[in-house]
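ok trying this again, last paste got cut off
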Amino acid sequence: MAPPLSRRALLQSAILAATTPGLAATTTTATASAGGATTATTAATTAPATTLPAPAAWKLRPFALEDVTLGPGLFAGKRQLMLDHARGYDVNRLLQVFRANAGLPTGGAVAPGGWEGLDGEANGNLRGHYTGHFLTMLSQAYASTGDQLYADRIRTMVGALAEVREALRRDPVVLPAAGRFGRAAEQVRGSYQYVDLPRNVLAGNPAITLAAWVKPTHASTWARVLDCGDDTTRYLYLAARSGGGAPRFALTTDGPGAEQGIDGTAPLPLDRWSHLAVTLADGTGTLYVDGTAVARNAAMTLTPASLGTPAHAWLGRSAFPADPVFAGAFGGFDVWSRALTPAEIAGLQDSRPADAPAGRGDLASYAFDETDGSTFSDASGRGLTATLRRTWGGPSHPGFLAAYPETQFIELESMTRGDYTRVWAPYYTAHKILRGLLDAHLATGDERALDLASGLCDWMHSRLSRLTDATLQRMWGIFSSGEFGGIVEAIVDLHALTGKAEHLALARLFDLDRLIDACAANTDVLDGLHANQHIPIFTGYVRLYDATGEERYLTAAKNFWRMVVPHRMYGIGGTSTGEFWKARDVIAGTLGATTAETCCAYNLLKLSRTLFFHEQDPAYMDYYERALYNQVLGSKQDKPDAEKPLVTYFIGLSPGHVRDYTPKQGTTCCEGTGMESATKYQDSVYFARADGSALYVNLFSPSTLTWAQQGVTVTQNTDYPREQGTTLTVRGRTTAFALKLRVPSWATAGFRVTVNGRAVDGTPRPGSYFTVRRTWRSGDTVRVSVPFRLRVEKAPDDPTLQTLFHGPVNLVARSASTDYLTFGLYRNAALSGDLLPTFTAVTGKPLHYRLDGTEFAPFFEGTEDPTHAYIRRSEPRVIFGGTDSGVANPVKADRTTLLDEIWAGAPFADKGALVSRVRATVDAWTAAGLLSAADGERIVATAGRATYVA
């Protein structure tokens, strides 16, 4: 059956039909036929995509991803690598942590690990975040390509998450599994489930036998098979693994230091049934493993009777909060009121107690044969029904959805300082899940995703609305634990869809007033703050301005942006060192192996884009180009991998740094945002005025825009940035609008525009938009020429440390040296000020150049070559056009050299203009006593003799 036609395809067909004589009727018929053939399939798979209403405050409107098709080129190549990853990764692995938390079957899926697994950093306290990122990636992939496979994967994940929420709303249900004899009860790791036994299960007997069939699936220490007691002072336990790794039985009435214990000699095997038994009578305790006595303690003065009737009796749970819940399966648990003989213990190995000489336990006997429900029957005759429970009880609201218990959210409310091993940014994780669900709904129209997102925010509102403002301010100010990412933006987006007053009220509960007020007053308080904890906050505050009209939100965001760009920005567009900000304008002093966390660039791009909708300051889009073409593209490795997205966490800017595309333990925040970045490269290429009167071309990128409002398509054909310009072709109906072409701030070598081969009047100004107003007809062609120059950008705190750009492209030196490489660049500088003539192009490798034996390459190439993003600039002698004057290049106290001051006057109209600049500069330096008259004359004469590239 033919796949459903995408909205883009339908619009393009309609535009083509409207402008091609004799084709309209045929196209319409064909479209109707195709639509009719696939209606049932479409209805059964995905509903129509949903559009997020654009705020009235936005002067510009973005285009949906499906309205902009990427053409062949740099972006399409990088994106394809990520699309293949999105197609190949098993989403059941992502869902494993959610299903486990809800006590649902996981189907044998293995959690991704790293930050998304229980054994990852900080005990996996961030798990669930990556699933949200993955949903967003799939949604963007589907919107961009129309490939039904991505919609199918979205539907699978949304359906599973709906099942998870439903399971969390009810009491836990037994998971039947194959046992040693018959069935068993599975305890999935991460479910936080245990069996609650009646408190009198031990009946206070002085003599006792405990026996259990267990199948541990994880080697965690101190997980209990049985725990009976009042607290962490008076208790009895049988642990599958002690700190030494072997089973242990212990009794105490005075805490851990007074335990009377029996220790096994070897660890229980994983994923295999083992039989544990303990007998205790007449002061002697014996521990059996698989029917064999492995340890004995003949000096045990305590018995279960010493505990009286304990406050709790649990299978799988410890009274010590830090101890893990038992992961594996229980195949039977029996308690006898006497010490069984060794022969009786041995007889339990081959059959159930009922069929063995010992018989069923007379105090308790659980076979775990149940296939549903939340209780386990007792066959001892005492009627001690056991109940399956969660250690944390259950959600406080039916909208709760997470891959871990609600306890992290609860504990955050009383925290005064960060500790991510206890609480790691739970509202940050909630944001990723919320954003993924929203994007899934917007891409596919799946109402289940919207319902899950709405319920999640209902739950958050129920928790946060009851807290005092002081508590909220304290929470949001805590490093890491209180981080909430871009949740405000997502909640405001949800409110735009639901209109629920509680959702807008919820968004305002995340106000971090001291930060908002400081930035609104243009007071720079960023020194020492965690960068990525705070950047996405401001995108949310702009959206709160959209929803409320409260000016302080927008003012704070604008001022914040200018505190980061350029004052804390590296040349590639990244920011932060070791995840934090330092003082304003300290760049050279922060260069190291842990600079430029990739998430920061992702979030600064979102903020820049959102601010541009309000204020069409070209600086926002200049930054967008810088960060997108350099850090974001360069953060993605140029090779396929089904298992990993291959995206950097930090991009080290220290000399000789090699990028790590498999960072930390995996499934990090930056890999998550990296998956998103690589599937939305086209989201800011074009914007339109709300009334359709103008089209902004922000980026030069091979792409086709379908502009339904104007009934046209606009196609860019270019190999930019390997090509210094682009060609745009308009097709469709005849219509009038202004075409606004961004003139990059670096485009000082000329910016020329022609329409149908004729030059357009006007003077393009770098760092602005050049406007072409006309009535457009199908086939009109616009040619934009943007000559590149090689230039440098200096670190403000050390002008001798510089980074190189050719047009928008950051060039890095490839060298294994871990010392800064030193280069002089003026020796063959062109009259235009272009430093490129000093370099030699590398044949067959676009944008690769060589200088003094070192190759320079584009930062965007995702290789594992050691690179130098910053070089040490040294111009020891005054040289013009390759001619050496023989005079040392003098330097001022601020480290500005004579050559710096001369070439600051570029571009020069001709050689005479350059020589005049040399004369004026030499005279000024001579007058200031910085240069001798004789050396000055030699410099002027050399400038006059030299030959220059124009």
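PB: full thing came through this time. The first strand starts at residue 60 and ends at 62.
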